[in-house]
From TrEMBL:
Transferase listed as a keyword: yes
Organism from which the protein derives: Sphingomonas oligophenolica
Name of the gene: gcvT
Pfam families from the UniProt entry: GCV_T (PF01571), GCV_T_C (PF08669)
NCBIfam families, A to Z: gcvT, PRK00389.1, PRK13579.1
Protein name: aminomethyltransferase
One of the protein's GO biological processes: glycine catabolic process
UniProt family annotation: Belongs to the GcvT family.
EC number(s) given by UniProt: 2.1.2.10
Residues in Aminomethyltransferase C-terminal domain copies: 303-380
Highest taxon above the source species: Bacteria
Keyword Isomerase found: no
Amino acid sequence: MSEPVHDIAAEIAARDDAEVEAAVIDLLPLDAWHRAHGARMVPFAGYEMPVQYDGIMAEHLWTRESAGLFDVSHMGQIFLSGEGLDEALETLIPADVKGVKPNAQKYSLLLDEGGGILDDLMFTRWDDGLYMVVNGAVKYEDIGHLRMELPDDITLNHMDDHALLALQGPKAVDALARLVPGVEALVFMTGDHFDWNGTQLWISRSGYTGEDGFEMSVPGEHAVLLADALVAEPEVKPIGLGARDSLRLEADLPLYGHDLDTETTPIMAALNFAVGSKRRREEANFPGAARILMERENGAIVRRVGLVIEGRQPVREGAAVIDADETTVGRVTSGGFAPTLGAPIAMAYVPTAMAEVGTRVQIVQRGKIHTGIVTAMPFVPHRYVRAGGK
């Protein structure tokens, strides 16, 4: 394994040190399972999580070629229900909640009053409410925000008794369909409830790698049985957070707290599609609507872009983007070696004038100048299975 990929593991281990020091580390349902499978564990989002098993490079490439099993049980699973839920939630996020059909999934953003991003999330319409998945590092803040801002008639259930597993890669459907017949009929951003040996699973065709794949919500007491069944399939190997990070970077999937935060708006973050509903734009009743719609019309001052870095040395989060006068004008928010491409890549916020594809930008890291070339994202094409084969 090359040294640049090792750096990802060190970066992940360091990301949540302050949080880990301030809180007791909780055990997730698969904690002992990971250790038994040889995982190297690191602190992450208040838990100990597997950063790698066989090596980040090998796990990354296995997922691109076959099927990787990820434990993402640190994420927050929430179920919302009650009269007037759709209207109430639309006061907190810019998505067209009312337009989401049963079993359909949608990406959106929890916004503060100035249009800054409190978190990004996925929600799905179940028969009796909305199932939502939020980021692990801020799930308790999200839950507090939702409870404070939603009317008392809305019930919020934190599904902390459930684990969340993700099976990702081009052969994920082959492996999972043997265990749970019928999942092959799902298409990207849809899901359904399935019975697996008497256990109810919620399975959606989605993920965080850019590959085809599935996410599975399972009662915590059955998580080990499901993980064992999945890795018994020849296409499947357990994959750690290190490869999850490099896979999502190649796929242009931003990470909250790094590429997204309260200082960035959806337009700055190049997430214009998150405010794509004509009705919601016309109503303009989501937090920060005036600012966000102005930026959507006229452009934001800065923009998240993808960079291919010349040479072999990756640039990391926090590296400064400078102009011709060596003045800092932007910053790198994610960076690392891309195993699929065999080259270092990064995400950065730069002035909109520097955001055009092909623009060369200078980056300072530890006193050394690096050159990045703005490139279209995703760096590696998505391979989602969409309705109608689109």
